[in-house]
Each structure stands twice: as C-alpha cells, then as structure tokens.
Specification:
CATH class of one domain: Mainly Alpha
Helix content: 40-55%
Structural class: mainly alpha
Bound molecules: heme C
Distance between the termini: 66 Å
Strand content: under 5%
Shape: elongated
Length: 184
C-alpha cells in the first residue's frame, strides 16, 4: 500500500509539474529557437504517422503527364507555394528563413511520400507548422496538379519553370529573383 501511495504521489507531482511548465509560460514558443528539441521530434513523428494513416485518396489518371506537371508548376506560383518552398531557379521569400519547422525545398519536398500523402498534405495543411490547408479554397483538380508537379519537381529545369509561367500577371519570378509576397 505505501508503494502505491508513493507512486500516486509521484504521478500527481509530474502531472502538476507538466501543467505548470506549459500553462504558466515556462515553455518557450519562440520560432527563433532551433527546432531540434524533444517537442520538435515528437511533433515530427506525430505528423508522419498522422499523414500516413489519413492519406487514402486515389490519384487520377495522367498524374505523370507533361501537361499536368506544367499546369501544376503554374498552380505552384499561383497559390504561393513558391514563397515557402522555392522552385527550380527560384529562391523562397526571405521570411522562409524564420519558419520552424523549415519548409522542405526543391530537393526533398514530398520525395519520400506517396501521391496520396502529398495530396492529403496540400488539401489539409499541417497543424502547428506554416503549411496551410488548400482544401477550402482550391479544387481537388488543382490540388492533383500540384501533386503532379511536386512528383516531378526535381526534373524540371529553371528555364522550363520560367517559360511555363511567363504569362502570369504579375510575372513568375525569374531565376535568382525572390517571389512577390503580395501575389494572390
Ligand atoms: C507559409 C509557408 C508555406 C506555404 C505557402 C506552403 N507551404 Fe508547404 N510546407 C510548409 C512547411 C513549413 C512544411 C513542413 C511541415 C513539416 O515539417 O511537417 C510544408 C510541407 C509541405 C509538404 C510536405 C513535404 C515533405 O516532404 O515533408 C508538401 C507536399 C507541401 N508543403 C506542399 C505545398 C504546396 C503544394 C503548397 C502550395 C499550394 C505549399 N506547400 C505552400 C510551408 C508552406
């Protein structure tokens, strides 16, 4: 019995300490701190497991067609993805350096994910990161175009990206330029 009493005391003390730590402001929510804390790795594992469990959509036919990749590149600028993720020949906007977690760039965005997982993330966003949900204001057709582009982003050249988006108003950012953060 005394052992149980001790254990209960310890459990209660730990719970109280955790509550005080988080709700009395001791936990530092600054995004300036490097994101390699226990909290960051726990959140990363939670995100991965959650996306894996929820991503169920079946990709449409033609996901690897050149026309769909090109249309996706257009959406990538139109929806502002390029500001956080960059694109071949285009750097992300300056504010991207202040995000925690950091958005993956051209070399690794969605590269180890299935098409359904990339679609799920675009549709739903990722809570507690800067990744917005696009499901509320873009069609699933547009979201699949983005998936198509992301699947091929590493093969797209800066020249192709600039040419495909040359008709955009305001024009798509050129090689080495930063995207316009007022684009809508
Ligand atoms: C305001 C910044 C921001 C914008 C705009 C943004 N993202 Fe993201 N995105 C992020 C961040 C931050 C992450 C990383 C989240 C994480 O670490 O779990 C992310 C993650 C992702 C991932 C997961 C990739 C991976 O390998 O983990 C995909 C796919 C993605 N974004 C696609 C898009 C697309 C497509 C758009 C535009 C329709 C877009 N994002 C717009 C910030 C942004």
């Amino acid at each position: 019995m005394p052992v149980i009493a001790w254990l209960s005391g310890i459990v209660i003390a730990v719970v109280v300490a955790v509550i005080v730590y988080f709700f009395a402001g001791f936990y530092n929510v600054s995004a300036l701190r490097p994101g390699n804390s226990v909290m960051s790795s726990a959140l990363e594992s939670i995100r991965e497991a959650s996306v894996e469990r929820h991503a169920e959509a079946t990709p449409p036919a033609g996901l690897d067609d050149a026309s769909m990749v090109q249309a996706g590149a257009h959406e990538f600028v139109e929806e502002g993805c390029v500001m956080c993720h960059g694109s071949p020949g285009v750097k992300p906007a300056k504010f991207e350096q202040g995000l925690d977690p950091q958005p993956p760039g051209v070399d690794d965005i969605g590269q180890d994910m299935s098409a359904a997982e990339v679609f799920w993330i675009i549709h739903n966003g990722i809570r507690m990161t800067a990744m917005p949900a696009f499901g509320g204001h873009t069609s699933s057709d547009e979201q699949w175009k983005l998936v198509s582009y992301i699947r091929h982003i590493r093969q797209v050249t800066p020249q192709q990206f600039a040419t495909w988006n040359a008709d955009m108003h305001p024009p798509a950012p050129r090689e080495g330029e930063k995207p316009d953060s007022d684009r809508d």
